[in-house]
Amino acid sequence: MPVINKAQIKRILVITLSNIGDIILTTPVIRALSKEFTGSRIDVMVGPNGKDIFDKDPRIFKLVIYDKHISIAEKRRLQLKLKKLKYDLVVDLRNTVFPLLLAPRYRTSPIQSFPKEIVHKKKRHLYRLVPLGVEDLSEKSYIHIAKEDEDYVDGLVKTDALTDPIVIVSPGARSHLKQWTVGGFAEVCDGLISECAANIVFVGTGSDKDVVLSIAGKMKNKCHNFVDKTNIRQLASLLKRSSLLITNDSAPMHLGCAVGAKVLAVFGPTDPKKSGPTSAFD
Question: What is the pLDDT of residues 173-197, one digit of tens each?
Answer without folding.
Answer: 888 888 999 999 999 999 999 999 9
